[in-house]
Design brief:
Rna Polymerase Sigma Factor, Chain: A; single chain; Butyryl-CoA Dehydrogenase, subunit A, domain 3; mainly alpha
C-alpha cells in the first residue's frame, strides 16, 4: 500500500483553504485506499459477506466533504487521523445497525474496540514474523505464524491495538499518536512494550512446548 506523502497533503490543504475545489476533491480522495484498508482490517466477519469496505469509506468521505470547511479552519487533528475517525464512526454505526440482535455483545465491543477478525490476526502475525519481532528471525512457517497469532490473542488490548495500527493499518508513529490521543513518545514506549510482551509470550510458549 502506497502511503500519500504528508507534504503533498499539506499542500492540498493550503490550496483547499484558498477555495480550490479541485484540491478539495483530491484531498478527500487521496487517502481512500488507506481508509478501505482500515475498514477491511476491522470489519466483522458477519458483516464482511454483506458489505464492502468501500461502502463504509464512501459514506465517511461524504461526511468528510460536509465537514471539511470546518476542519480546514480548526485543524483539530492531522488530516488522515481525522478522516480515519469519521470512517471509524461509520463502521461503528454499521455494526450497531446490523448486529442489533447481539446488542449486549456489540455494546461491549464498542467500548473495547473491535475484536480483530481471524484473517486480520493471521496477517498481523505474518507481518510481525517478517519484521523479525519473533525468535524465528523472520521464518514464515505456518507453525511460527500460528504461535505468534496465539500470543497476540493473549496480549492486553492496548498493546495489540498499537501493533494493529502500526503494522496492519501502516500508520506512522505520529498518526498512531493522533488516533490514540497520546504523545508520539508514549506511542514509541507502548510499541516497544507490546513487542517485548509478545516476545515474552513466545518465549513462554517455547518453554511450555519443550
Amino acid at each position: 500500500m502506497v502511503v500519500p506523502h504528508d507534504a503533498d497533503t499539506e499542500e492540498l490543504i493550503v490550496r483547499a483553504r484558498r477555495g480550490d475545489g479541485g484540491a478539495r476533491q483530491q484531498l478527500l480522495m487521496r487517502h481512500r485506499d488507506r481508509l478501505c484498508r482500515m475498514v477491511a482490517v476491522r470489519l466483522d466477519r458477519r458483516l464482511a459477506a454483506r458489505f464492502d469496505p468501500s461502502d463504509v469509506v464512501q459514506e465517511a468521505l461524504l461526511d468528510a466533504d460536509q465537514r471539511l470547511s470546518d476542519y480546514l479552519e480548526q485543524r483539530p487533528l492531522p488530516f488522515y487521523p481525522w478522516l480515519r475517525r469519521l470512517a471509524w464512526e461509520h463502521l461503528l454505526k454499521l455494526k450497531q445497525r446490523h448486529l442489533a440482535a447481539r446488542k449486549r455483545s456489540a455494546n461491549r465491543e464498542e467500548r473495547q474496540g473491535f475484536g480483530l477478525p481471524d484473517a486480520s490476526a493471521l496477517e498481523l502475525a505474518q507481518r510481525l514474523v517478517s519484521q523479525g519481532t519473533s525468535p524465528s528471525n523472520g521464518l514464515l512457517r505456518d507453525e511460527v505464524r500460528g504461535r505468534v497469532q496465539a500470543a497476540l490473542a493473549r496480549l492486553p488490548e492496548g498493546d495489540r491495538e498499537v501493533l494493529v495500527l502500526r503494522y496492519l493499518e501502516q500508520l506512522s508513529m505520529g498518526e498512531v499518536a493522533a488516533v490514540l490521543e497520546i504523545t508520539e513518545g508514549a506511542v514509541k514506549m507502548r510499541h516497544s512494550r507490546a513487542l517485548a510482551r509478545l516476545c515474552g509470550l513466545l518465549g513462554g510458549q517455547a518453554e511450555n512446548q519443550s
